[in-house]
UniProtKB/TrEMBL annotation:
Annotated organism of origin: Blautia intestinihominis
Enzyme Commission number(s) from the entry: 3.4.21.53
Family the entry assigns: Belongs to the peptidase S16 family.
Keyword Transport in record: no
Name of the protein: Lon protease
Function: ATP-dependent serine protease that mediates the selective degradation of mutant and abnormal proteins as well as certain short-lived regulatory proteins. Required for cellular homeostasis and for survival from DNA damage and developmental changes induced by stress. Degrades polypeptides processively to yield small peptide fragments that are 5 to 10 amino acids long. Binds to DNA in a double-stranded, site-specific manner.
Limits of the Lon N-terminal domain: 8-203
Key word Metal-binding present: no
Length: 771
C-alpha cells in the first residue's frame, strides 16, 4: 500500500539516478530545473528527483520519465559561471511518479511514497541474504580496488540487512540503469535479488578485464623483448659485416641448380628466393618464406626410383612374405607384367578390404619391396580436416603442407608406393570433407595435376602407386570407391592360420623375444588348439599375441629355471595361456523341434547362431529376444507372415495364431546380431515348433526370406562356411544366387561340407526338416 499523494517540485535527471541515503552533488543547466530548485528552497527544501529515459531529450514529458524516483533534501546550492548551479542533495526515500501537475515554468510532480516492507522474513532467510551480500561486496572490493579500505570496513561492520543493502547500493560504481533497477525494487527480497545479480555481473566483468590486461601486458613485454634482441642482433651483424639472409639465399640458389624439376617449378622457386633475399631478416614473414622455399626444394619433383622388372624375384618376395592372398599377388604380378610390356603406364589404385589382422598393411610393404619402390604410409583413421590432405594456405599462421606432400618429401622420389591406411575411417566436419579431398588424389585422370594449397604448384601423382586399406567397404563414400579397384581379403581358415604361424609368426616372435633357435618348440596339435580355443578372429593378430605370450613365459623358464628346452603341447598349453577363452557352438547331437542353426558374419569372421522357438498358449503375440537388430526383427515378422500364408498346407488351424504366443530367442544375447541373412533360419525354427517336426541337427542355413517365401542372396559366404566347418556341420543351405560365390571359395574350406542351393522355403524345409 502506497502513502498519500504529495506534490513536489521535480527535476528530470540526465544519466544519473539518486538512491535513498545517497549524498551527491550534480550540476543543473536547464532553466525549469533551476526554477524547481528555487521553488523547493522557498518551501521545505524537499525535491523529487526522477531520471529521464533518454539523456539527450531537453524537455521530457511524463512518458519520458521512469516511474520511480527519489525524494531528496537540498543541502546546498552553489552558483557557478556560465549560468550553472551545483546542487548537493541527500536522498530520503523512493517514491512513485503518479503524474505531472504542471510542466511549466518548472515540473510539479504528484508522488506517492512506498510503505515500509511489512513482510515477515524468517531469521535464517535474512541471515542468508545478509551473508550473501556481504560476501559479494567483499569480492567486489577486491576486484575493483576503487573503494577505500576504511569505507569497506565500515560497510562490512553493518549488522542490519536493510542498511547493508542500502549502503552497498550507494557506494558501488555502477551504471545509472542498474541504479534505477535497485530503486524500482520495493520489497527487501526484490532489493536483495537485484543487488546480488548486479554484484555478480560486475565481479565477472572485472575478472575478465583483469585477465585481458595480464595477457596484453605479457604479450607486449614479449614483443618488446624480441624487438630489442633482434635490433641488437642486427647491429652486431652490421658491425661484423655479416648478412645471414644473403648467405641463406645463396645456399638456396645452389640447391635450386641441382634440383630435378620442370622450368615452371624452378621459376617459381627462383622468384621466391629473390623475394627472400630482398627481405629484412628480422621481418616476421622472412621465416615463413624460408620454410616455404625449403619445402619446395625438398620435394622430389622429377626424381624417380628405378622399378624392378624381375617378375620371378617379385613373385618370390610376395610368396615368402605372405601365405595365401592369392588374388592380391596375382593383381600385382599383372601390374608388373603390363609395366614391363609398356615401359610405363598409369599405376593402378588398389583398395584392400578385409577384417583386422588379415595382412592388408604388411602386403603393401611386401609389394613395395618386390617392386623396389620407396614405401610411405599415411594413416587416415580419424582425419576429418580437408587441410590434412590438401594443405593449408600460406597466409595462415602455422601453415603446413598436406599429408600427401609430406609423404612425398619423406620418400624422396616422385614414384613411391603410398599406403593410405584405414581409408574407411575418415570423417568430415565444418572444416571440409576429407573423402572429397581424396577424390583428386585417387583419380588417375586428375592426380597428374594435384594442387596442394601450401605448395601452390601442381604436383604429378600419376607415378605414385596408391594402395588403400579398409575394414568395411560400407564406410567408403561411393564416389571415392568408384575410383579404386577393390580386392577383398577374407578371413583365414584354421589350416591357413597354422601355416602362417609356422612360417611367419613363430620365427618372428622367437627373434623379438631373443629365444635361440631350437630352445622353444610349439607342437602342431598345441598350435591348432591355440587357434581354435584361444583366438576368435578373421586375421592372425590375436594369434601372434598368444605366441608372444608363450615366448615370454618360455624365456623366463630358460633364464630362471635353467631349462635346456621348452616344449609346448596340448597338455601344458593352459600353463602358458591359462584357461581357453572361446568354444565353438558345435552341432547338436540330436534332431530337435523348434531349434535351427543359422550362419552369421561378424567383424572378426563367421559364427553360428542357434535359433530356438517355443509355442505356448496366449494371445497370438510374437516375442523376440536375444538383442536382435531391426533387420532381424523384420526377418522374423516376414517369416511368421509366410507361415500364416501357407498354414493350410501344413494342417495348421487358422485360430492357432490367435490362441498361441510364439517366442523366438537367439542365445548369447550379449553379442549384437543384425543383418539380412537369418530369415530362413527363423522361419524354419518357427514352423518346426508350430507343426512339431524336428529340424536336422547337422544342417545349417543362411539366406533372407520374402513374404512369398523366396530366398534372397547374402554376403560374407566364406566366413559363414568356415563357421559351419568349425561347428562340424555336414550340410549348408545357401541361396541359389550365391552359387557363383561358392565357385570362388577354396576347396579346402568346402571339403567335408555338402552345399545345397535353395530358391524358396519349400526347398529349405525339404532339406532341413526330418522326413
Amino acid at each position: 500500500m502506497k502513502q498519500p499523494i504529495s506534490i513536489l517540485p521535480a527535476i528530470a535527471l540526465r544519466g544519473t539516478t539518486i538512491l535513498p541515503d545517497m549524498i551527491v552533488h550534480f550540476d543543473v543547466s536547464r532553466e525549469r530545473s533551476m526554477k524547481a530548485i528555487e521553488a523547493a528552497m522557498l518551501q521545505d527544501e524537499k525535491i523529487f528527483l526522477v531520471t529521464q529515459k533518454d539523456p539527450e531529450m531537453e524537455t521530457p514529458g511524463i512518458t519520458d520519465l521512469y516511474k520511480v524516483g527519489t525524494v531528496a533534501y537540498i543541502k546546498q546550492v552553489v552558483k557557478l559561471p556560465h549560468d550553472l548551479l551545483r546542487v548537493l542533495v541527500e536522498g530520503v526515500e523512493r517514491a512513485e511518479l503518479i503524474g505531472l501537475e504542471q510542466e511549466e515554468p518548472f515540473l510539479m510532480a504528484e508522488t506517492a511514497g512506498f510503505e515500509a516492507d511489512g513482510a515477515h522474513y524468517a531469521k535464517s532467510l535474512r541471515e542468508a541474504m545478509y551473508r550473501s551480500i556481504r560476501e559479494l561486496f567483499q569480492r567486489y572490493c577486491i576486484e575493483s580496488g576503487r573503494i577505500s579500505k576504511d569505507l569497506a570496513a565500515k560497510i562490512m561492520n553493518i549488522q542490519n540487512l536493510e542498511e547493508l543493502i542500502s549502503q552497498v547500493s550507494v557506494n558501488i560504481q555502477i551504471t545509472y540503469q542498474n541504479q534505477q533497477k535497485i530503486l524500482e525494487a520495493v520489497t527487501l527480497e526484490e532489493q536483495y535479488e537485484v543487488l546480488a545479480a548486479i554484484l555478480n555481473n560486475e565481479i565477472e566483468v572485472l575478472q575478465i578485464g583483469h585477465d585481458l590486461q595480464h595477457k596484453l601486458k605479457a604479450r607486449v613485454d614479449k614483443n618488446q623483448r624480441e624487438y630489442i634482441l633482434r635490433e641488437q642482433l642486427k647491429l652486431i651483424r652490421e658491425e661484423l659485416g655479416e648478412d645471414n639472409t644473403a648467405d641463406t639465399a645463396q645456399e638456396y640458389r645452389e640447391k635450386l641448380e641441382k634440383l630435378q624439376a620442370s622450368k615452371e617449378v624452378k621459376d617459381k622457386i627462383s622468384k621466391e628466393i629473390d623475394r627472400f633475399k630482398s627481405m629484412n631478416s628480422s621481418a616476421a614473414e622472412s621465416s615463413v618464406l624460408s620454410t616455404y622455399i625449403e619445402t619446395l626444394l625438398d620435394l622430389p619433383w622429377d626424381k624417380k626410383s628405378e622399378d624392378s622388372m624381375d617378375l620371378a624375384e617379385a613373385w618370390k618376395i610376395l610368396e615368402e612374405g605372405h601365405y595365401g592372398l592369392k588374388e592380391v599377388k596375382e593383381r600385382i604380378m599383372e601390374f608388373l607384367s603390363v609395366r614391363k610390356l609398356t615401359s610405363g603406364g598409369k599405376s593402378p589404385i588398389l583398395c584392400l578390404v578385409g577384417p583386422p589382422g588379415t595382412g592388408k598393411t604388411s602386403i603393401a610393404h611386401s609389394v613395395a619391396e618386390a617392386l623396389h619402390k620407396k614405401y610411405v604410409r599415411i594413416c587416415l583413421g580419424g582425419v576429418r580436416d580437408e587441410a590434412e590432405i590438401r594443405g593449408h594456405r600460406k597466409t595462415y599462421v602455422g601453415a603446413m603442407p598436406g599429408r600427401i606432400t609430406v609423404a612425398l618429401q619423406q620418400a624422396g622420389v616422385s614414384n613411391p608406393l603410398m599406403l593410405l591406411d584405414e581409408i574407411d575411417k575418415t570423417s568430415s566436419d565444418y572444416k571440409g570433407d576429407t573423402s572429397s579431398a581424396l577424390l583428386e588424389v585417387l583419380d588417375p585422370e586428375q592426380n597428374s595435376h594435384f594442387n596442394d594449397h601450401y605448395v601452390e604448384v601442381s604436383q604429378d601423382l600419376s607415378e605414385v602407386l596408391f594402395i588403400a586399406t579398409a575394414n568395411d567397404i560400407q564406410g567408403i563414400p561411393r564416389p571415392l570407391l568408384d575410383r579404386m579397384e577393390v580386392i577383398e581379403i577374407s578371413g583365414y581358415t584354421e589350416n591357413e592360420k597354422e601355416h602362417i604361424a609356422k612360417e611367419h609368426l613363430i620365427p618372428k616372435q622367437l627373434e623379438v623375444n631373443g629365444i635361440p633357435k631350437g630352445k622353444l618348440t610349439i607342437q602342431p596339435a598345441a598350435l591348432r588348439k591355440m587357434i581354435t580355443l584361444y583366438t576368435r578372429e578373421a586375421g592372425v593378430r590375436g594369434l601372434e599375441r598368444k605366441i608372444g605370450q608363450i615366448c615370454r613365459k618360455a624365456a623366463r623358464e630358460l633364464m630362471e629355471n635353467g631349462a635346456d628346452k621348452v616344449v609346448v603341447n596340448t597338455k601344458n598349453l593352459d600353463k602358458f595361456l591359462g584357461k581357453s577363452t572361446y568354444s565353438y557352438l558345435m552341432a547338436n547331437k540330436k534332431d530337435e523341434v523348434g531349434i535351427a542353426r543359422g550362419l552369421a558374419w561378424t567383424q572378426v569372421g563367421g559364427d553360428t547362431l542357434q535359433i530356438e522357438v517355443n509355442v505356448m498358449p496366449g494371445k497370438g503375440e510374437l516375442v523376440l529376444t536375444g538383442q536382435l537388430g531391426d533387420v532381424m526383427k523384420e526377418s522374423a515378422m516376414a517369416g511368421i507372415s509366410y507361415i500364416r500364408s501357407v498354414a493350410d498346407q501344413y494342417d495348421i488351424k487358422p485360430e492357432f495364431f490367435q490362441e498361441n504366443d510364439i517366442h523366438v530367442h537367439i542365445p548369447e544375447g550379449a553379442v549384437p546380431k543384425d543383418g539380412p541373412s537369418a530369415g530362413i533360419t527363423m522361419a524354419t525354427a518357427m514352423l518346426s515348433a508350430i507343426i512339431g517336426k524336428e529340424v536336422r541337427a547337422d544342417v545349417a542355413m543362411t539366406g533372407e526370406i520374402t513374404l512369398r517365401g523366396r530366398v534372397l542372396p547374402i554376403g560374407g559366404l566364406k566366413e559363414k562356411l568356415l563357421a559351419a566347418k568349425y561347428a562340424r556341420i555336414k550340410q549348408v543351405l545357401v541361396p541359389r544366387e550365391n552359387k557363383q560365390d561358392i565357385q570362388e571359395i577354396d576347396a579346402e574350406i568346402l571339403d567335408g561340407l555338402k552345399i545345397s542351393y535353395v530358391d524358396n522355403m519349400k526347398e529349405v524345409l525339404h532339406e532341413a526338416l526330418v522326413k
